[in-house]
């Protein structure tokens, strides 16, 4: 059954959520989105795998990308969706309602509706956001078709409670290792305890005072944390290795290289292996388009703490913000649910700006 | 094929090792030992499961227990045994040669040979030493038939390089836990990192100076070590629990209760769960029989650091020492092997003492 765009953005969200599209299984929902876009004569379409790009070509002097991913994390008995009311708030409950088919629905409705927006638009619906970086559909588009995404400003419809969250922190993970020598624990003086040697690693982490860094007017909170620790062979053996898995979230004013150097300096006495590294994105709220967008949708912009795909736009030199319905704390939760008035708010905010 | 006792204690060791008897599978070797003991008219036999007791009843005013376990840890391509020479030393190689069929062979040969020892003897061969405490054959005998083991002195033929190792350290294992609160690591300030809270646990362990305690003339080295550490849920989650697995080896002058109190005091700020506890055994070398035994076998007695079943005799009020062929560092090793002259030395040492 084809998508019905004669309904509200809330009901369209529900239609999209009730078409399961776990990462790697986005074809059907991509086909359905393509089918409705094809009927809009003002859009030029492009598809790569299950990533779809729809562009207006009105000759406006400015262009804006509005993007959202169509995949979800695995369903856990939370599809089909249902409406529910909690404490007087109306929600649409189910997988994908927050992350991020509500955003996709708003974008789809406006893409078809707005034949003559005040700026040229490049709408993007993409695949594989919830899995490894190498598979990410937006990453694939930026690598293979950077010209296709050329724009002056980008909006990523990641859940942000229908308010603007600028940029994002960078993300680094490292494995810090200590080494020792095994022995029987009845003769521990023959060995060399690698877990004991990890004491200063934990001391450094426990004493660390994360920075709060103002970047382009927003204050980013950093974080340095052990997210895992492991060591030990058996109850009677002195362990010869201990590994502390460290996660560093760093402000977008710090480059990935600077973040690595900071970690290597902090843990200079230990073996450090960087296992994941993604630069952050500056909020770019000083861009004229960003200022106009902020004025149109209202509210006070906040920093985005988690890493999101806005960093891919930042990597292309495009200022980008997060703006979408849904509480990010409910993303991936079994009780994932979006307050339906946030869907309406985003729809109205974007329409107001794009038609002003 | 029945055991052939006309050979040397070395060759008898080989016969016993080539009859596999991993813990739980001791029946055949127990049957074979029983069969040769049955032919010795000076011995009164008793059997419980695969534990065998053979007693002389000569009316001597003193009685000595000589015991060894007949089970081994799992075979790992190291049976059948073979003779080999390394750096000019002749070895018998294979599973059980050290731990502890060489000791069992010496005991079996002497049990049958010595019809009129200078003290009454209670020979014990028992099962399930290499597995859980609840299954231990000597433990079962001490619980069910304490009178059967009544004696003035005990020798456990645990590998000790054919020299006397007195008593043993106690052994305690504890799980030290810290607790926190989960959150997404992009918003770590909402959570409470349990791994960071474990820093002082490792600091205590790293700074701890283990005691060296003289007990009845022997100096026991203690040890306090992390033998394991674990914590963490995922690379982007602040962990809400961390567990440090601690092993405390304590001198036999310290009771099990005192050891527990020491650990609870050291880690008073943390959740402490005692998961294993075994009291040590004083060396008992001041006992007259021990002095005579030491004089007969010669050498300088040393402390036993690992926990052994001598503690079970200590629990019955019987002074007990470890004395057996084989390097304890080779016990359980894939290249387990016993220097054959240590087998002969133990045989001669015991015979000299028991016939003096």
TrEMBL record, chains A, B:
Assembly and interaction partners: Homodimer.
This protein's record includes keyword DNA damage: no
Organism expressing this protein natively: Frondihabitans australicus
A GO MF term: metal ion binding
Cofactor(s) for this UniProt protein: Zn(2+); Co(2+)
PANTHER family: ACETYLORNITHINE DEACETYLASE (PTHR43808), N-ACETYL-L-CITRULLINE DEACETYLASE (PTHR43808:SF31)
Record flagged with keyword DNA-binding: no
EC number: 3.5.1.18
Example of a GO biological process term: diaminopimelate biosynthetic process
Keywords for this protein: Amino-acid biosynthesis, Cobalt, Diaminopimelate biosynthesis, Hydrolase, Lysine biosynthesis, Metal-binding, Zinc
Name of the protein: Succinyl-diaminopimelate desuccinylase
Catalysed reactions, as listed in the record: N-succinyl-(2S,6S)-2,6-diaminopimelate + H2O = (2S,6S)-2,6-diaminopimelate + succinate
InterPro entries: Bact_exopeptidase_dim_dom, Peptidase_M20, Peptidase_M20_dimer, Peptidase_M20A, Succinyl-DAP_deSuclase_DapE
């Amino acid at each position: 059954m084809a998508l019905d765009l004669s309904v509200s953005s809330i009901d369209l969200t529900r239609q999209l959520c009730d078409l399961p599209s776990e990462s790697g299984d986005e074809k059907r929902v991509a086909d359905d989105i393509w089918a409705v876009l094809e009927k809009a004569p003002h859009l030029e379409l492009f598809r790569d795998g299950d990533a779809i790009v729809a562009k207006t070509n009105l000759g406006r002097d400015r262009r804006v990308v509005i993007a959202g991913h169509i995949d979800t994390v695995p369903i856990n008995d939370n599809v089909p969706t249902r409406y529910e009311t909690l404490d007087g708030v109306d929600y649409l409950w189910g997988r994908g309602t927050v992350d991020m088919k509500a955003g996709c629905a708003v974008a789809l409705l406006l893409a078809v509706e707005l034949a003559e927006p005040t700026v040229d638009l490049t709408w993007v619906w993409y695949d594989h956001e919830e899995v490894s970086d190498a598979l990410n559909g937006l990453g694939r588009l930026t690598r293979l078709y950077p010209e296709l995404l050329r724009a002056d400003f980008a909006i990523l419809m990641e859940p942000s409670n229908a308010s603007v969250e600028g940029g994002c922190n960078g993300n680094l993970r490292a494995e810090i290792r200590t080494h020792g020598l095994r022995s029987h624990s009845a003769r521990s003086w023959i060995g060399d305890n690698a877990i004991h040697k990890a004491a200063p690693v934990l001391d450094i982490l426990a004493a660390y005072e994360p920075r709060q860094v103002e970047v382009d007017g927003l204050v980013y909170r950093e974080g340095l944390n052990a997210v895992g620790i492991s060591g030990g062979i058996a109850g009677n053996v002195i362990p010869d290795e201990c590994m502390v898995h460290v996660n560093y979230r760093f402000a977008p004013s710090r480059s990935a290289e600077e973040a690595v150097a900071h970690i290597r300096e902090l843990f200079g006495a230990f073996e450090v292996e960087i296992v994941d590294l993604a630069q952050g994105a500056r909020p770019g709220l000083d861009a004229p388009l960003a200022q106009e967008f902020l004025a149109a949708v209202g509210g006070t912009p906040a920093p985005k703490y988690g890493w999101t795909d806005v960093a891919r736009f930042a990597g292309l030199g495009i200022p980008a913000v997060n703006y979408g319905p849904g509480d990010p704390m409910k993303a991936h939760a079994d009780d994932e649910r979006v307050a339906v008035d946030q869907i309406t708010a985003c729809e109205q905010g974007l329409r107001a700006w794009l038609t002003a």
